[in-house]
Amino acid sequence: MTDTSGTLFIVAAPSGAGKSTLVNALLEREPGISLSVSHTTRPPRPGEQYGRHYYFVERTEFEREVAEGVFLEHAEVHGNFYGTSRKTVQHLLQQSRDVLLEIDWQGAAQIRKAKPDCVSVFILPPSRVELERRLRGRGSDSDEVIERRLRNSRGEIAHAHEFDYVIVNDRFEEALDGLQAIVRAVRQRSDLQCQRHEALIKELLAEA
Ligand SMILES: Nc1ncnc2c1ncn2[C@@H]1O[C@H](COP(=O)(O)OP(=O)(O)OP(=O)(O)O)[C@@H](O)[C@H]1O
Ligand SMILES: Nc1nc2c(ncn2[C@@H]2O[C@H](COP(=O)(O)O)[C@@H](O)[C@H]2O)c(=O)[nH]1
């Protein structure tokens, strides 16, 4: 990937921990961040729109896209395939936009290799009981899908330590404040870094 000035943020969590709800609220507070819309082979849930929630594609199309190198990262999660478009992310970062990826831990590991300066956040539910309550309360998945996601949550949580930050989504507003504080601190730091380099470049040029 070419060097850019936008920051790549990753938010991951076990299914039902509340990451989409947190991310959507964060984007309302921080409109300067763009969410990358993923491709998936998962069938749409009621109310989900093509191009807004996901690019819903058939398995054969997804496999073709993998072979063509369309994805910056891709993974199988809960029996479906998901991928992040390389072109979309590069385009946004090159425009100095900060980009947020809502992806799983496998995708996060691939992104860290491609872009080590990314910033990753893992969202934990306050308890297993609450995770199940949220998954069932959402009312979007069958019992079979919910049970599969709950089973997989252990393996996902085992990767929390690989992330730069971990947030517990117990009280929603507190978790949102925590996520926003991370984003703001990172953005401020990268602004400072740019300014520092800018000053040094000017100084070196003046001496020449
Ligand atoms: N802090 C919270 N307290 C109570 N309910 C919450 C909280 N955060 C989110 N929820 C609710 O939990 C449910 C799951 O949230 P959400 O869909 O954002 O999860 P998710 O982590 O994005 O799941 P998935 O990975 O399956 O998309 C939703 O009904 C949401 O309103
Ligand atoms: N590695 C990737 N994981 C992704 C991507 N888009 C979403 N996801 C993760 O999949 C699960 C399930 O999502 P759901 O919408 O079916 O509930 C969740 O952990 C997402 O974060 C992606 O592009 N790459």
Automatic annotation (TrEMBL):
Which reaction equations make up its catalytic activity?
A: GMP + ATP = GDP + ADP
Q: Where does it primarily localize? A: cytoplasm
Which residues make up the binding site for ATP?
13-20
Asked if the record carries the keyword Kinase, the reply is yes
Entry EC no(s): 2.7.4.8
Where in or outside the cell?
A: Cytoplasm
SMART domains per the record?
Answer: GuKc (SM00072)
Molecular function (GO) terms listed?
Answer: GMP kinase activity
Domain Guanylate kinase-like: where?
Answer: 6-184
What UniProt keywords apply to this chain's record, in alphabetical order? Answer: ATP-binding, Cytoplasm, Kinase, Nucleotide-binding, Transferase
Described by its record, this protein's role is as follows: Essential for recycling GMP and indirectly, cGMP.
Q: Which family does it belong to?
A: Belongs to the guanylate kinase family.
Listed name of the protein: Guanylate kinase
Originating species:
Dyella lipolytica
